[in-house]
Amino acid sequence: MKRLFTLLLVGSSLAGWAQQVNGSFDEPWEDCTPYTGGTSITCGTQPQGWKISHIAGYNFFGVTWIGSTKVASSTTGYNDQGLAVQLTNTANESKKDQIIPAYLTLGTPWNTANLSGQEADGGSFGGLEFSNKPDAIEFYYKRSATDSEPASVVAYLWSGTYSQANVPVNVANSPKTITMTNRDRNILGITTNKGGTVTETGNLIAVINNQITNTTEEWTKYTAQFEYKDTETTPEKINIILAANDYFSANRTVTEGNSLTVDEVTLIYYHTLSALSYDGKDINFEESTLTYDLSDVTYEADKLHYTKKAAGGTAVATYNETTAKVSIVVTSDDKLNSATYELQFKMPVSYTGKLSSISYNSTPLEGFAEDTHYYSLTADYTADCLTATASDEGLTPTISYDAKSRIATISVPESGQDINYYVKFAKEATHYPSKLLISCDMLGGFLSAPAQEVGITENEDGTIGFQLIGFEFTGANMGDIYVDDIAMDGDGNIYKEDVIQIFGDFGVLLGDLPITLKGQLEDGELECDLDITWTNEGYQYPIKVTVYPPTTPYIDARGISGLNVAAVQEGLTNPNCIIYTDKGTTVSEGSENVVVGTSCTKLNLNKSNDISIPYAFTATEASLARSFATGWHSICLPFATTPETLGAEQAQAFTAFDGNTLTFEKVTAMEANVPYLIYFAKKTENISLQNIDAAVTVPQSVTHGNVTFTGNYEAGRNMEGLYGVAEKDGAQYIMRGGAGSTLGSTGAYFTVSGSEVNSLHLRLDGIETSISGVQTGQDGQAFDIYSLNGIKMRSQAATTDGLPKGIYLINGKKHIVK
């Protein structure tokens, strides 16, 4: 949270930088073809956007090249990241007494000499098109040297063109000459005896010509400021030269093996002031201090003086008469960074513009404070329902209301202060207890997991509204989220794309937030995702808010770094809830139902709550909190096991139905998600297991004839009209459930298609047992039986046993007695 609001309130840092050159050297390097003024060859490689002073050598009779020499290579970059350039003065491959100077440049490197190695010269000409005014150059370097020869740092900006005639540019008995454009020495005014007349139509604007004399095996930061010769003219070109030698040495003496390694070459743009005063007096100015209190002084524009630190950029002062505040906005020349200095002068009138109270229908608003500007009421606005009192004696607040947004605005315009208070008249809502999971990868992953209520409102056009009052974000109240006119289909699916502002003081700082809301509202529970995009200083921060009901059977927290599992579990009401986390997530000892990667240490399930396993995993320990009385039960489990492991006498699978008899057969192994009848010879509770493979919960249905046996993971499933195992008068039956009868999770039930069946038989291990198909609930339910002709056959009966075969009417439905 501290990081978030530092970004919000402070903005960009005062250091200020912009990379106008490709100074990371990390992209794939390119082949180098040294400049010779004509035919050349490939020699070595160089980073994109730069050129290295590799030499092609002498073209021997146009057949072969002699003396081609590489003077640089890539190496591991700063902080062991990416690539760096290692420049090393290197002996000529053919003439070892000739040492080739190693340098890197944005221009074009060249060299010349005769065949004996005499009359040597070289350098760089040209550069990049460039129109900004950087203030400094910065890079990291390592350096080794065996003597006092320094390394060189050269950079310059210019406009126009410098031309020199007859400059030799290759190695030959009689070197080729060209008219060279924008040679380094010509631009910088350094004399040279190589070449002819120099024609100057250009203008040197800024220059760096420094040397590095120290050696270091560690990465060292280097910064050099440009010396501006002309701050009025806009540059047209730039060149940067980094050399492992004394680049402009008069005698071109170069030491073999001296090296300079460089990385992260960056142009610096200042966006601060270098001086600030008022009425010629010191105000304790410091470059990094942005606010100054001159509240005992009346402002006069001609007494304010300031100087920007940058050669380019702008510094613009504005005065707000209402606040008596001067703001000086300093913007870097590349327009990527800015800083605002504020000077508070004496207020014309010392009004605060604040309120001391707000009341609704004469009742003060709960939680009112003069520095809290946003309030939500669940009510409808009426004329004169709001009253307010100004903190400034003698001033009267004004109140306006916008019917579309349902927001009233209260202010004190007479104070001259730009302060507003807002009251949102929220619609009546149905409240859904919810568990929120909030995350943002760019803000550290996991942010918070508060338990809050979400309100849903109904609109006349069939759309709904979403309310999240007091949205908690890493422990802080950010304000209220309102999203209205959300489309909802017949299945409860909801969707809306919108741009909102969070209703609260922090909402102003966050600004407009694109949001996508997607989810489902069904059976009194709400599940949805809010994908929010917050943009700050040009960077986008995608924040994801997932809303779960507290009864949710699982939470998918994978992909969220820094997850606090205990915070995610807090407030959940389903003890079966499984938390999915990434491999390596820290989980406290003894934690239950937490899947780390694909492994769970302890899995505890019970039949009184829903069970859902959307992703398979393994569990070292597992337990099922379900009581099994002596006798038969239905069962369906999300893992494979055996009757013996469960402590049961036997388990039977549904294998056939011939229209009269349900047939089951013993099994020695039980599959995951498959329903069975299971028999316990003694009362059994709290089954414990080891090393189980939890499967995705897709309860299976087994159908034979018009009877289907289906597994169940829903707690409290309504069994009215369904059939299940129950006991009556000391005997067990497969009975039809009545009103109010339910089935717990990990059980199973039967359904019969077509006309309901009143009497069936059950075959277990070849023994037929009579089963009533019309008993409803464990306690049964009396009913009248009629023939199809309307004749009452029985009054307040509990069974159809003993009736002749035929079709009867019971509670208005047809029943078949076979």
Q: Would you tell me the overall average pLDDT?
A: 89
Quaternary structure type? single chain
CATH C-level class of the largest domain:
Mainly Beta
Count of DSSP helices?
5
Helix content: under 10%
Which CATH architecture of the largest domain would you pick? Answer: Sandwich
Strand content: over 45%
Number of strands: 73
Give the overall form: flat
| Rg result | 42 Å
Give the total of domains: 6
Largest sheet: 8 strands, antiparallel, barrel
Outline the structure in words.
- The strands form 19 sheets. The chain has an 8-stranded antiparallel beta barrel with strand order 39-41-42-45-46-47-48-49.
- It is mainly beta and 818 residues long.
- It folds into 6 domains: 17-268, Galactose-binding domain-like (Jelly Rolls, Sandwich), CATH 2.60.120; 273-345, no CATH class; 355-425, no CATH class; 429-597; 619-781, no CATH class; 782-818, no CATH class.
- A hairpin with a 2-residue loop joins β32 (355-360) and β33 (363-364).
- The radius of gyration is 42 Å and the shape is flat.
- The protein has 5 helices and 73 strands.
